[in-house]
Amino acid sequence: MTNGIQRRISALVSALLLCATTFLHAQGGKTPPSPAATATATFDGVTATVNYSQPGKKGREIFGKLVPFGEVWRTGANAATTITFSGDVNFGGKALKAGTYALFTIPTKDKWTFIINSEAKQMGAFGYSKDKDVLRVEAIPTATKELVERFTISFDKADKGTILTLAWDMTKVSLPITK
């Protein structure tokens, strides 16, 4: 290698290290308080994808306190959680067309209301409008066996379709999704 090429490679490596160091310093070298997450499932030729942020429990009382009972919740942190279906589905017993939607919930102690809202791009639930709801379905929450520190959305296989599950603290709530 010639000295000119070696100097260029050295300069490039130095620049990359400087950028990485600056980025890590700006981030505090830590995971953000509510990192972005994605859950995906494919069933009967349909792909379902949820994009959300995962707040942590951090010793706080969650449902009924941090997330008030009876109020619309963005179902995560930061921007509104979105759910996308590549084909038409049956969401908790109700027909839903393919598309991308905001997923909100209204938790209470005894039941949760899942809300599919046509306004997918919004910050949290601050701009939420009931007029843009596409459908609402209810589900019964249950207690988890172990503490779930970070809010988690997952899909589980079912005989038909999939099961969408939200879990945080000592609570989980599930809803069937079929084609």
What would the keywords be for this entry?
single chain; 179 residues; mainly beta; six-stranded antiparallel β-sheet; four-stranded antiparallel β-sheet
Work out the oligomeric state of the chains in this entry.
single chain
* Overall geometric form: globular
Strand order of the largest sheet: 1-2-3-6-7-8
Number of helices: 1
Written overview of the protein:
This protein is mostly beta strands and 179 residues long. It folds into 2 domains: 1-30; 32-178, no CATH class. It has one helix at residues 3-26, and strands at residues 36-43, 46-53, 82-85, 89-91, 94-96, 99-107, 112-117, 133-139, 142-157, 162-178. It is globular.
